[in-house]
Specification:
- This protein is of the alpha+beta class.
- Helices cover about 30% and strands about 25% of the residues.
- The chain contains three helices and four strands, in the order αβββαβα.
- It is globular and about 45 Å long.
- The protein starts with a helix and ends in a 17-residue tail after the last helix.
- About 10% of the residues are buried.
Length: about 130
């Protein structure tokens, strides 16, 4: 969703390999459909963290790649996907969620209760 054909070609084999190795189900993908067409979707990773008084189960859901096709935006599709995921996670005892937001997605996430964190850092192995 949202990628051109060249980007898809460069990524497809890597993603297929990754998903085929994902035998423990730690990543789930959800699609929004209309008339057999994919109009939106996202992925969910469940991570086990150290439990705390704020997160007694130690489970955290990380939302990946929330996307709605441009012609379907503004119809509540992303909100419906998030509502579905929140309900699913609640049944599993997951109460903590995190994500990286694009400028476009920030108003939605803030409206439903996400708070921006100013202390998030990232390091990859290539960094020194």
């Amino acid at each position: 969703m949202g990628w051109n054909e060249e980007e898809l070609k460069q990524t497809e084999s890597i993603v297929r390999e990754f998903l085929s190795a994902n035998s423990d189900g730690d990543i789930e993908c959800y699609l929004a459909m209309e008339d057999r067409n994919v109009v939106g979707g996202c992925a969910l990773s469940v991570q086990r963290m150290l439990p705390s008084s704020r997160n007694r189960t130690g489970l955290q859901a990380y939302l990946h790649n929330m996307y709605v096709e441009p012609e379907y935006r503004g119809r509540g599709i992303a909100t419906a996907l998030l509502t579905f995921i929140f309900e699913l996670c609640q049944k599993r005892g997951i109460q903590r969620f995190s994500l990286h937001a694009s400028e476009m997605g920030r108003p939605l996430y803030e409206r439903i209760g996400f708070e921006k964190s100013d202390n998030y850092y990232v390091k990859t192995s290539q960094d020194r």
